[in-house]
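Need a sequence for this fold. Nothing fancy.
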């Protein structure tokens, strides 16, 4: 079986298209790396790029992209709604075919070592690749963001990187590299400009503060639209499906007299996650994935090979 790894690096730039174009070009220039998606958000000032490759090529493409980002992004000048600590903020590896989580953990370690050796960017390992329990949660790793970590890294043992010296890169900061299962980035937009409403709803929804398991959530302002947003990472879409998160946000918003005006998926989403949404809202009886035309067609074509 062909070995395929998905990599979804996040970059602290969502406004300068020419910068993102150059980062994307560096990925596409890697032999065997296939670009699947790119998403940029000017409010968050952040871009999410998705590509797949063989394991060794995935690391090569990630390093090329991080090199380009380090040359073009200066965190001292960066402003945006989304928390960040690095020009290349996070690099997660996700097993897709012919590889397991242990393989992706090994890739994360190889990538982290190369980030420091070749780019002088220190690295924290996070999620399944974490070397300490407290670093499994990205929010804990990134607490304080670039400025806070820069001020504490030399004196705090808790801030010491897994790779590199106890100092941030002066402009590119520090990067989190990890391994994880597929994640869905899902945002719900609210018909209000009151950020406190979004923060309260995010607090009610996120697992860490008593909400839904497998959900991380923050409130953000979308100033150009005059609204706020509950931004969620669904780290296990089978354990807590999309519709459950949406419904909880909607019900919490009703308590404040605020309507949900839309939602969005950032990056790619597994078909199974959307099937579950259709199943829930349509109340389908005895529905199976084999009833999806494209799925049945793919199965038939594979059987003929």
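Here you go.
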């Amino acid at each position: 079986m062909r070995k395929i790894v998905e990599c979804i690096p996040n970059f602290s730039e969502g406004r300068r298209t020419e910068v993102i174009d150059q980062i994307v070009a560096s990925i596409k220039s890697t032999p065997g790396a296939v670009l699947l998606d790119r998403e940029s958000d000017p409010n968050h000032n952040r871009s999410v790029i998705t590509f797949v490759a063989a394991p060794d090529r995935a690391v090569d493409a990630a390093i090329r992209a991080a090199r380009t980002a380090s040359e073009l992004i200066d965190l001292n000048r960066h402003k945006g709604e989304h928390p960040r600590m690095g020009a290349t903020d996070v690099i997660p590896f996700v097993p897709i075919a012919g590889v397991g989580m242990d393989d992706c953990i090994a890739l994360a370690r190889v990538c982290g070592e190369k980030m420091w050796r070749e780019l002088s960017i220190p690295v924290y390992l996070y999620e399944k690749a974490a070397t300490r329990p407290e670093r499994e949660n990205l929010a804990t790793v990134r607490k304080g963001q670039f400025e806070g970590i820069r001020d504490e890294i030399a004196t705090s043992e808790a801030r010491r990187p897994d790779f590199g010296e106890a100092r941030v890169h002066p402009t590119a900061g520090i990067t989190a590299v990890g391994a994880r299962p597929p994640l869905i980035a899902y945002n719900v937009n609210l018909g209000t400009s009151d950020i406190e409403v979004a923060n309260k709803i995010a607090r009610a929804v996120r697992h860490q503060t008593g909400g839904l398991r497998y959900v991380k959530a923050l409130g953000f302002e979308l100033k150009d639209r005059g609204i706020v947003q509950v931004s969620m990472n669904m780290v296990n879409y089978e354990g807590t499906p999309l519709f459950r998160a949406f419904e909880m946000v909607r019900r919490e918003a009703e308590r404040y007299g605020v309507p949900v005006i839309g939602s969005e998926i950032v990056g790619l989403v597994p078909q199974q996650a959307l099937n579950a949404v259709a199943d829930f809202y349509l109340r389908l009886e005895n529905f199976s994935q084999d009833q999806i035309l494209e799925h049945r067609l793919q199965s038939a074509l594979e059987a003929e090979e």
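For context: The radius of gyration is 20 Å.
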